[in-house]
Amino acid sequence: MSTVMGGGSRTAAKAPKPVVSGRERDGRVAWLFIAPVLIGFVVFYLYPTLRGLYWSFTDYSLLGQPKWVGAQNYVDVVHDADFWRSMLKTLQYVVINVGSQLLLALLLAALMHRLTRSVMLRTTLLLPWLVPNVTTGLIWLWLLDTNLGFVNHLLDSMGFDHVGFFMSPDLVIPTISLINTWGYAGYTALLFYAGMLQIPADVYEAAAIDGAGEWRLFTRVTLPLLKPILALVLVVTLIGSFQIFDTVAATTRGDPAGASRVVYYYIYQQAFQFFHMGYASTMAILLVLILGVLTFVQLRLLRASESQLS
Amino acid sequence: MITTSKPGRALMAGAAALAAILATAGCSSNDSAGGDVTLQYWMWDDTQVPAYQQCADDFTAANPSIKIEITQTAWGQYWTNLATQVAAGSAPDVWVDQSSYYPQFVEDQQVENLTPYIEKDPDAIDLSLYAPGVADMWVIDDQRYGFPKDFDTIGLLINKARADAAGLTEADFQNMTWNPTDGGTFEEVIAKLSVDQNGVHGNEPGFDKDNVENYGFIVEWADGSQGQNFWGDLAAMNGFTYSDKNPFGTKFNYDSPELVETMEWIVSLSQKGYAPSFDQNSSLSRLEVVKAGTAGMTTMGSFNQMLYKDTPDDFYFATLPTGPEGLKSATNSLTDSMYAGGKHKDQAWEWIKYLASPACQDVVGETGVVFPAVEEAAQRSVEARGELGLDASVFTSYLDEPDGTFLLPISMHGTEISQIVQDALQGVALGTTDPETALTRANAEVNELFES
């Protein structure tokens, strides 16, 4: 933003005849810079959302013409046991995924912050995040396969029974959650690490002089001062985590018996497999509402705007 | 004033660029300059692209004003892409269609009714050339929406090394019998193929069913509402019919005792240690597990036989066992659908006619990849596989039996029924419900889809 302002006022200074005031001109230049994003937002987010909102009140197969049915879809969703089951599955995924990811990322960030600052290590941590989710899913599908997977060969050689990670209804959601934790923890750790670098070193020194050990430093200094970053990362990962789709689509497609049918996969099935685009839109709109409320509550609970540094 | 207009211009330019992109995307399939037409043709099976490219080249050689552009998209994205293109009004002129999806496209009037074209051109296609039944799949209320491309049947894939270890020869796998009570000679063979960690076979005393090293058989549990790859075939041989009529039944029989008995027998295989329990199955392909020698036998579609063209000596192929009602295999077929919103329907009709003709189907047959619907062309496929050392006659032998093949059910709500029944059967496989309860509940859910 400051670059935009700076650029604007410099032009104003050079201009022989300032027709409009500098401030006004800054505003226009700002709009110019925002325009690509704004157009993108309107065309690819706002317009589809409004279309989706309209479809949520229609019976629409995607192939034919939408037919207005009022609030019928909303009534149906409330009574759709499969929808609520998929919400529960999603929630289970979110809790395991976000919980394990944040813990692991915090641990990695703290180690990077206090032990080593090797660029090499940071790059390595980021590697899984650079792999597309579908590829990640397929790699783990092979590694964890009940009969042919490397992990089960290891278990076998250690004398354990084979484990059907993707085939057991109790294990499938934890498995997919942890696969994505593997994929994203490095990236999240880097965000935390960046936040930790902003904490002044003298705070640590002062605490150390007062006799605080590493654990106490972490809980009393790092964590409280990291709160704004924690809040941001929590909100972002939570929303991202709710949108779990690609890993499921690449591995189990909702099996066994719907045990991994998360809500986005269910919406996808309704829209593109069962051709109930109207109904799928209704569920998507409901999800937007739920996520909106969740984010609001989260931000309030964490009082994200307050940093103890300032 | 220049500064004022800048953002406006940027907006305009952005919008114009976007409009241009949308416009080109929208009409790319409908370019026609100087009378030449390029038809867009979509398919999902990459192994068949070379054969159809050959058909397209031959077709253009005979009809120089019509060019064919083939686009192949993997199955996982095929229907999503097609549906969005239809919604945008820019679907391909002709696409490969499949039985669970095509009724919805017909219902929404996106597939062109071919009957008027046939009436104008009555000698175009000779339906008697096709394998039994497959031409009937594409008729709704006496209106024809397509011609059959190919057909398939189901057989057995056996790992030869596992068979040797069980003392079984190729002859032991031919002419097996099956019934839902004691499993017939089929179950005996499966028992022999099963080996526990101490090397005891399933037919021998002291077989430890809880510590099995090599399973005799692998069941396909992700098989929709049709059970094409196992349970549907066995149930049909036990007298089961899916619905009141086919195609386009509206009342289903998933709760019938013939199917319940069949499922009870299939589940008993895991209970006896002859097949892996559900969660001990591979999440990858069954065929890979048999290939790796972890299990002895599984079912295989005729369309997959070419996977073994480099190692034909490591496997046996056999027909399914004969059940109480005789030997039967499910058969399925594909068709080519014409887009009702297309701009070059007359040219598309010519292309569809050519695809359904012996000329094109012979080309496809010679590759051996699938069995073309034209029976003579299918014979070429059998010969092509024979030259590679693969015995494909097991898959065509069903055609010699009376009612040796049966059509998989085609109905409205096909994809939804598929999910309901598959979920129910996976529940049975997991042991959370028994076959009778699960199937009765699923059947009620399925029939409810047709009550509105």
What would a concise description of this structure say?
The complex is a heterodimer of chains A (310) and B (452). With 310 residues, chain A is an all-alpha fold.
Task: List its traits.
heterodimer; A: 310 residues; MetI-like fold; 2 domains; 2 strands; B: 452 residues; alpha/beta; D-Maltodextrin-Binding Protein, domain 2; 8-stranded mixed sheet; 17 helices
Report on this structure:
- The complex is a heterodimer of chains A (310) and B (452).
- With 310 residues, chain A is mostly helical.
- Chain A folds into 2 domains: 2-55; 72-302, MetI-like fold.
- Chain A contains 14 helices and 2 strands; from the N terminus they run ααββαααααααααααα.
- Chain A has helices at residues 2-14, 22-55, 72-78, 81-114, 119-130, 133-143, 150-157, 172-197, 201-209, 214-225, 227-242, 246-250, 263-273, 277-302; strands at residues 58-59, 67-68.
- A two-stranded antiparallel ribbon of chain A has the order 1-2.
- In chain A, strand 1 (58-59) and strand 2 form a beta hairpin.
- In chain A, helix 3 packs across helix 14 (277-302).
- Chain A starts with a helix and ends in an 8-residue tail after the last helix.
- The relative contact order of chain A is 0.12.
- Residues 1-15 of chain A have low confidence and may be disordered.
- Chain B starts with a helix and ends with a helix.
- In chain B, 40% of the residues lie in helices and 16% in strands.
- Chain B has helices at 2-27, 49-62, 75-87, 102-107, 115-120, 160-165, 170-173, 184-193, 231-237, 257-271, 286-291, 345-355, 358-367, 375-387, 393-396, 414-430, 435-448, and strands at 32-33, 36-43, 66-72, 94-98, 139-140, 143-144, 148-152, 154-159, 195-196, 212-218, 295-301, 315-319, 329-338, 371-372, 405-407.
- The longest helix of chain B has 26 residues, at 2-27.
- Chain B is built from 17 helices and 15 strands.
- Chain B has 452 residues and is an alpha/beta fold.
- In chain B, strand 1 (32-33) and strand 2 (36-43) form a beta hairpin.
- Chain B folds into 2 domains: 35-151 and 333-387, 3-Layer(aba) Sandwich (D-Maltodextrin-Binding Protein, domain 2), CATH 3.40.190; 154-332 and 394-448, Periplasmic binding protein-like II (D-Maltodextrin-Binding Protein, domain 2), CATH 3.40.190.10.
- In chain B, strands 1, 2, 3, 4, 7, 13, 14 and 15 form an 8-stranded mixed β-sheet that branches. A 5-stranded mixed β-sheet of chain B has the order 9-10-11-8-12. A two-stranded antiparallel sheet of chain B has the order 5-6.
- The chains are: A mainly alpha (310), B alpha/beta (452).
- Chains A and B meet through helix 2 and helix 13 of A and helix 1, helix 3, helix 4 and helix 16 of B.
